UniProtKB/TrEMBL annotation, chain A:
Record's keyword terms, sorted: Membrane, Transmembrane, Transmembrane helix
Family per similarity comment: Belongs to the GerABKA family.
Family matches, as Pfam families: GerA (PF03323)
GO cellular component: membrane
GO biological process: spore germination
Listed name of the protein: GerA spore germination protein
Spans through the membrane: 293-317, 389-408, 420-441
Origin superkingdom: Bacteria
UniProtKB/TrEMBL annotation, chain B:
Source domain of life: Bacteria
InterPro entries listed in its UniProt record: GerAC_N, Spore_GerAC-like, Spore_GerAC-like_C, Spore_GerAC_C_sf
GO CC, one annotated term: membrane
UniProt lineage: Bacteria, Bacillati, Bacillota, Bacilli, Bacillales
Protein name, UniProt field: Spore germination protein
UniProtKB/TrEMBL annotation, chain C:
Keywords: Germination, Membrane, Transmembrane, Transmembrane helix, Transport
TM ranges: 12-32, 38-60, 81-106, 118-137, 144-161, 181-201, 213-238, 266-285, 297-317, 329-351
Protein name: Spore germination protein (Amino acid permease)
GO BP of this protein: spore germination
Length: 496, 367, 362
């Protein structure tokens, strides 16, 4: 494309004629045959192919994908003991299903089913196994009170965890598959009557439109369906907690599960949703409110403390109170570089520590903590590399960043902190103001499934504030959040 | 794509254009904590500044500089030649004026302080009885940073109403406003210490008279409302023994009303004082209600007398430090006030002081 | 445009467009112009704005929610409208850029005195560009967030309540003022910004209740101004207030918190939030008008050109005095536009009605 057309395109309104290529029709038409299936699995050494010549049955399965007990009990034992003329009857038993299309057959074998070929007809039996890891506590989203179970990598278990909590026939599930090679199962859940179907359609449409070779995790999936993929902010909320997801369902959100990923996505999301934890609802409202406010204060601290330090020590010395002035000057006087570099050095060190701690096993991780504590806490000050007030600023903003319940969000916020520090180092308070302005302008343009990312603030919905910035008593939480745009608004029908 | 370029260009340009020239990194700055203005015998302006300095390793110390100059700004330029640090006045807390300079007027200096956006409006204005530069630059055994010491002394004293709290803003406000004249606390050198030397009264920007420190609380009673302070009353002598009472934890309120009698204003100044007696060596029985009432009237009389004396002093010097003029103004018509030459009228205005004292308690003892 | 403005958003948008740099000088201007108790003039100005808003309301009602350009272009040939359009584009984009320049020059009073102001201007213009390309609905959302980010500063007014003395206010009303005709317009500049709501008409529907929103936005501004001026008139003595160039900065400089002092430069930095909206709204309006002249050009590009041109123009005035002179002239013109444009629209609408009536009769 020439430069000229590029410029013209940039200047003039033109309806973009380009649209996504029409989705390919799945090849459901072809009848599955043994030869074709074997051809498909050519060079797959782990495929097990057994033949039972006397009953003219051949079976195909992956040995490591099936439950050996089930295999023996439900298939092998039966096939060994059956009379040749009763095979037809046997295979009419309910655990055997006729596979009509080759794609379904191939995916079925890949997901741990056994394929039984008898003449023209192919049966599939679900003997999936071995057991995956059991339901354990969540590592990233722990709560003190409330249920402790968390999703694991198995989509069926995850579905059952949700179904067990929401015993309603209105809980609907859409099954999708993503990834041309990985063919990962994705389930979209919603509660009919509560959800706004526009969101469901949009969510499903976006997932269907993904054309990549594979996805491995929910957090990866959501980056393909983000409204604004280059933004620093996560635009969908992910959680590992079934109780949180159940509450999102009831709030009218659309839920997405990805096979092989313990996190579950909820959409649409607002920025403020990342600051609430299910703990808030299990505590009494006053405690819940206090913790929630604390998180917003933590947000303020984490983005502003270090940048304020840089700004004040570089440009605005008059803002320092007299009592602090001498201590600050004294500890700064031995530092050989300007505050901006000093702050960046410390912030990078803290990030290094955090990253190292996250990668190492817990036992070594503790050592890192101790070493880091000594290095940062004392040695750096004594060596005159940093001032001790900066240590306090950096440490408190690091701690504050961990208060934010969502790890994905807290990582984004830590990155924002760096840009604020840079801005403060360049233009002091004015730089901070500019950075905040840019941030707000950016956030106001963000959407999540087409609904505004800053929802209860802009667009302004004051009613939602009592479950956003505070957690008011349950009897006042009468309506579902407005971002869900649900027709079924009332959730609390108790009389006051 | 366009966005990426945009963001990159913002970062790039701002780093290139970043305000290197306006950097004020704290360890490279000499913070002027206090400055003093003085007049030498031959009429030159002497300027001293005190810079508390944090030396690495050692204890906090300070630097002082002294120079003669035509103005403070010029002095700063001359002084910065002597220092390895950039001198900056953003942390200025206290400005001292020598009395000899203040008698000639200090407005040009105040003007330059107000004009400078770096200087806080909360800077204290203080008068020094004696040599201000010497007071600021000498060594005090117990106080390594004299500027800091003086400031804390003033802070504490103004909380106790021993001196009024006078900031740059207050001074300018009262300087400009018609019907009130500015005041400033006076400090003086006393060997190893600095002590409060009273209250300086200004006519416009000229220092004309002072009040004794013992009268400070009377001044406070008349000037406005306050909530903390203590005063010792001399209640005359009986049988050769001096009777004194100490009133502490004072709450005081003042109200000024103006009556016009054939165009001549009469000013009534009501002060309501409440406090507890912490020390009394007189003959009255203060545990008794009558005794207390008697004591209350005695104290009120004492305060009234002293107040009358103070007002006479002010009227004789032609300074309206209590802001009586403002109340007179507010009780007149605008044109009437404009045609009135208040400062000419002020010495003849009748001011009637009316003090009521209420003793809240007399301490822990019942007798 | 999918979403329409809500009533609250329109109100906040009007309020944030009005609140700009004039607020810093407003108490001083009032003191010079009206003398004693000049803060009482704010409600009077508010009444004048209400008269103007009622004109806009008539346009809205009679025009039945049609955009003002549609109204104009139906009766007047486009060629004849072009001079008007060009004038509006020039005026509005200039107001935006000169206001930004003034903000920067004022900032340089307290910090960064030697940095090239155009460096700041460049960044602010980039932000303004980023803001206006997002469209009115997103600008309104931004306005709401910024509103919450600066309205808390009002709490600082309580800090001064202890220092206010009733005796400073004096019982006189409007005595000793200067009463200069030009300054009346200078003060009115503090309220300008609501007239841009004429352009909101196309972006609102019945649920917006646009007129109510404009009045509310105006009201918030007026209450803000009254409070700030009230505190200023009590905190400073009148001659002192007259002597100050930016009284609000002096007011903020007096705040001393235990952990931080002299927050005026931080808070002044936060005033960027409302300034950027003032700039953004005026530039957006200019862009809207220019879209009428060049309907085929992408609005992104128009915004870019407008911001670029106003950036170039803002090189011209260098000192605060020049900027003030420019702003004074622009505010004067804008005052007449604020009244003239609705009047023009009303007369066009009357003509349209008349001809329609004739048609139906005949």
């Amino acid at each position: 494309m020439s430069l000229r057309t590029n410029i013209q395109r940039w200047i003039f309104n033109k309806e973009s004629a380009q649209s996504r290529p029409a989705e390919k029709l799945p090849d459901t038409e072809r009848k599955p045959t043994l030869a074709q299936t074997l051809d498909e699995y050519k060079d797959c050494a782990d495929l097990i192919h057994r033949t039972y010549p006397d009953i003219q049955v051949e079976v195909l399965y992956f040995g490591h994908m099936v439950n050996k007990d089930l295999l023996n009990r439900e298939v092998i034992a039966l096939l060994l003991n059956v009379e040749p003329d009763e095979v037809g009857n046997l295979l009419n038993q309910p655990q055997f299903k006729v596979a009509n299309d080759s794609k379904g057959l191939i995916i079925g074998i890949l997901s741990g089913q056994i394929a039984i070929f008898r003449g023209e007809i192919v049966y599939l039996a679900d003997i999936r196994g071995p057991e995956s890891r059991s339901v354990t506590q969540s590592e990233t989203e722990t709560v003190i009170t409330g249920p402790h179970d968390a999703f694991n990598e198995e989509i069926d278990i995850n579905l059952s965890l949700i179904r067990r909590r929401v015993k309603s026939s209105h809980l609907k599930v859409v099954k999708l598959s993503v990834g041309e090679i990985t063919k990962t199962n994705v389930c979209v859940l919603y509660i009919l009557d509560i959800v706004n179907m526009d969101y469901v359609d949009e969510f499903v449409r976006r997932i269907r439109a993904i054309e990549v070779d594979g996805i491995y995790d929910t957090n990866m999936l959501i980056q393909y369906i983000d409204d604004s993929p280059i933004s620093i902010f996560p635009q969908f909320l992910t959680s590992e907690r079934p109780d949180a997801i159940a509450s999102k369902l009831l709030a009218g959100r659309v839920i997405g599960l990805v096979d092989g990923s313990p996190s579950v996505v909820s959409a649409p999301t607002s920025f403020f949703e990342f600051f609430s934890s299910s703990d808030d609802y299990y505590q009494r409202w006053s405690i819940g409110t206090a913790t929630r406010l604390l998180r917003f204060i933590a947000f303020g601290i984490t983005i502003s403390f270090t940048s304020m330090y840089v700004s004040v020590t570089t440009f605005h010395y008059e803002m320092i109170p007299e009592n602090l002035l001498l201590t600050l000057t004294e500890s700064r006087s031995r530092v050989p570089f300007p505050p901006l570099y000093e702050a960046l050095l410390m912030e990078v060190t803290i990030e290094l520590l955090r990253e190292a701690g996250a990668r190492l096993p817990t036992k070594i991780g503790q050592t890192i903590g101790i070493v880091g504590g000594i290095v940062i806490g004392q040695a750096a000050v004594q060596a005159g590399l940093t001032s001790n007030i900066l240590i306090i600023a950096v440490a408190s903003s690091a701690i504050a960043s961990f208060v934010i319940p969502s790890y994905v969000m807290s990582a984004s916020i830590r990155l924002i902190r760096f840009s604020l520090i840079m801005a403060a180092g360049i233009w002091g308070n004015f730089g901070i103001a500019i950075a905040i302005t840019a941030l707000v302008i950016h956030m106001c343009g963000l959407t999540s499934l087409g609904s505004s990312y800053l929802t209860p603030v802009a667009p302004f919905k004051f009613k939602d504030w009592r479950d956003t910035f505070i957690r008011s008593p349950f009897k006042t939480l009468i309506e579902r959040p407005s971002q869900s745009r649900t027709k079924n608004r009332i959730r609390n029908k108790m009389k006051k | 794509m366009v966005k990426c370029i945009l963001i990159a260009s913002v970062l790039g340009t701002s780093i290139i254009l970043s305000a290197c020239s306006d950097r004020r990194i704290i360890e490279e700055i000499g913070f002027i904590q206090s400055a003093s203005y003085d007049r030498s015998a031959d009429g030159q302006l002497i300027i001293a500044i005190s810079i508390p300095k944090a030396d690495s390793g050692s204890k906090v110390s300070r630097e002082e500089f002294l120079t003669t100059a035509r103005s403070a700004k010029e002095a700063r330029i001359t002084l910065s030649r002597q220092s390895q640090l950039t001198l900056a006045s953003g942390q200025l807390r206290n400005v001292l004026f020598g009395c000899s300079l203040a008698r000639l007027g200090i407005w040009e200096h105040i003007d330059s302080l107000v004009r400078d956006t770096v200087i806080s409006p909360q800077v204290r204005i203080t008068l020094v009885d004696g040599d201000a530069a010497k007071l600021l630059t000498r060594q005090y055994k117990q106080h390594p940073i004299p500027g800091r010491y003086i400031e804390q002394l003033l802070e504490k004293s103004s909380r106790n109403q021993t001196v009024p709290k006078v900031t740059l803003h207050d001074f300018v406000k009262e300087y400009y406003e018609e019907g009130i004249d500015p005041v400033a606390p006076i400090i003086r050198d006393k060997g190893d210490h600095v002590e409060i030397g009273g209250i300086g009264l200004f006519r416009d920007d000229r220092y004309v008279a002072s009040l004794h420190p013992e009268e400070a609380l009377i001044f406070a009673f008349l000037r406005g409302k306050f909530n903390q302070g203590e005063i010792i009353m001399d209640l005359g002598s009986r049988n050769g023994i001096k009777e004194t009472a100490m009133l502490s934890a004072i709450n005081s309120k003042r109200r000024i009303t103006v009556n016009f009698d054939q165009g001549v204003p009469t000013v009534y100044c009501h002060a309501r004082i409440q406090g507890s007696i912490m020390e009394y060596n007189g003959t009255l029985k203060i545990s008794d209600i009558h005794g207390r009432h008697q004591l209350e009237t005695q104290i009120a009389q004492n305060v009234t007398e002293r107040a009358n004396k103070m007002i006479r002093l002010m009227q004789n010097n032609g300074v309206d430090s209590l802001g009586i003029g403002r109340f007179v103004r507010n009780s007149m018509s605008y044109s009437g006030w404009k045609s009135l030459d208040w400062m000419a009228k002020y010495p003849e205005v009748k001011v009637i002081v009316n003090v009521s004292v209420f003793i809240k308690d007399v301490g822990k003892l019942k007798i | 445009m999918k979403e329409k403005l809500s009533c609250f958003h329109a109100a906040i948008l009007v309020h944030m467009t009005q609140t700009g740099i004039v607020i810093f000088a407003l108490p001083g201007l009032l003191a010079v112009q009206f003398g004693t108790n000049g803060w009482l003039a704010v409600p009077l100005y508010f009444i004048v704005t209400l008269i103007n808003v009622s004109l806009i309301a008539i346009v809205y009602r009679v025009g039945e929610g049609k955009s003002i350009f549609d109204i104009l272009e139906r009766s007047i040939p486009k060629v004849m409208l072009y001079p008007l359009y060009v004038f509006l584009i020039g005026l509005w984009s200039l107001i935006g850029c000169i206001a930004a320049k003034k903000y920067i020059l004022l900032f340089q009073l307290i910090a960064f005195p030697t940095t090239n102001p155009m460096a700041f201007k460049f960044v602010i213009d980039l932000l303004a560009y980023a803001l206006i390309v997002k469209g009115l609905y997103n600008i309104a959302k931004t306005a709401t967030v910024f509103f919450w980010l600066i309205i808390w500063m009002g709490l600082f007014l309580f800090y001064f309540f202890g220092d206010l003395e009733w005796v400073t206010f004096t019982p006189f009303v409007f005595q000793g003022g200067h009463h200069d005709v030009k300054t009346y317009f200078d003060i009115y500049a503090a309220f300008l910004g609501y007239e841009l709501s004429l352009l909101f008409i196309g972006y609102s529907d019945r649920k917006t209740r646009l007129v109510k929103a404009i009045i509310w936005g105006n009201g918030i501004t007026a209450i803000n101004y009254i409070l700030i001026c009230l505190v200023s008139f009590g905190f400073f003595s009148l001659p002192q207030l007259k002597s100050l160039f930016v009284p609000l900065l002096d007011l903020l400089a007096s705040i001393k918190l235990p952990f931080i002092e002299r927050i005026e430069n931080l808070l002044y930095g936060f005033f960027l939030f409302s300034t950027i909206l003032t700039i953004g709204m005026y530039s957006w309006s200019a862009k809207e008008v220019s879209q009428r002249i060049f309907p085929t050009v992408r609005s992104r590009f128009l915004a870019f050109v407008i911001v670029l041109l106003s950036f170039i123009v803002s090189f011209i005035p260098k000192s605060l005095y020049e900027v003030d002179k420019w702003l004074r002239l622009l505010a004067y013109l804008e005052f007449w536009v604020a009244f003239g444009l609705p009047l023009l629209l009303i007369s066009v609408l009357i003509v349209q009605r008349g001809s329609k009536g004739e048609l139906s009769h005949g």
